[in-house]
Amino acid sequence: MKIFIGNLSWSTDETTLRERFEPFGEIETLRLVTDRETGRSRGFAFATFVRPDEAQNAIQEMNGKDLDGRVIQVSEAREREPRRR
Hints:
Blueprint: E1 2-6, H1 14-21, E2 27-34, E3 41-49, H2 52-62, E4 66-67, E5 70-71, E6 73-76
């Protein structure tokens, strides 16, 4: 199950995210989204947990918590709507 982690500090990196979210269960993939041109964090990430119940636990425990001075938002990831032209 994939979760969305938002409102991240610019200083938060993948290592920090892994350290904070791995206690909830095995993470299959973790990706901090960065700007293509600058390489700077865009302030959000996605983590995919092997087990859905562990992902749900991470959502419940981490949503609204402080991480690197920011109150983060954690929720189930949703597919993005297709762009209109």
